[in-house]
Amino acid sequence: MRVKTGVVRRRRHKKVLKQARGFYSGRRKHFRKAKEQLERSLCYAFRDRKQKKRTFRSLWIVRINAACHLHNTSYSKFMHALKSANIELDRKILADMAMNNPGAFEKLFNQVQAHL
């Protein structure tokens, strides 16, 4: 029995080519190239959603460390002092405080200073 795939194939190709919009050159126009690139791109997207979290965490640590060095201490000592003082603030909040509200960070630092 012969199976004709005209409509099904066209729909499948259109779906892939629609997702491949914005790719460069033949990677958006030719089905095979678009499909290959799309598979890679989706793998990168999955991987980078995880890496984004790591990247932001390291950025926050750099910002907190810079603020700590203004008060003549290191990041690790400051974080240890926070844990000793039972202050539970995550790195995102601390980094935001260090960047946008240095006065509040200084108050926090003064609270923790006994534990340093």
UniProtKB/TrEMBL annotation:
SUPFAM superfamilies to which the protein is assigned, alphabetical: Ribosomal protein L20 (SSF74731)
Keywords assigned: Ribonucleoprotein, Ribosomal protein, RNA-binding, rRNA-binding
GO molecular function, one term: rRNA binding
CDD domains membership: Ribosomal_L20
GO terms for biological process, alphabetical: ribosomal large subunit assembly; translation
GO cellular component: ribonucleoprotein complex; ribosome
Domain of life: Bacteria
UniProt-listed InterPro entries: Ribosomal_bL20, RIBOSOMAL_L20_CS, Ribosomal_protein_bL20_C
Gene3D superfamilies: 6.10.160.10, Ribosomal protein L20
Coiled coil stretches, renumbered: none
Family to which this protein belongs: Belongs to the bacterial ribosomal protein bL20 family.
PANTHER family: 39S RIBOSOMAL PROTEIN L20 (PTHR10986)
Record's function text: Binds directly to 23S ribosomal RNA and is necessary for the in vitro assembly process of the 50S ribosomal subunit. It is not involved in the protein synthesizing functions of that subunit.
Name of this protein: Large ribosomal subunit protein bL20
Species of provenance: Helicobacter mehlei
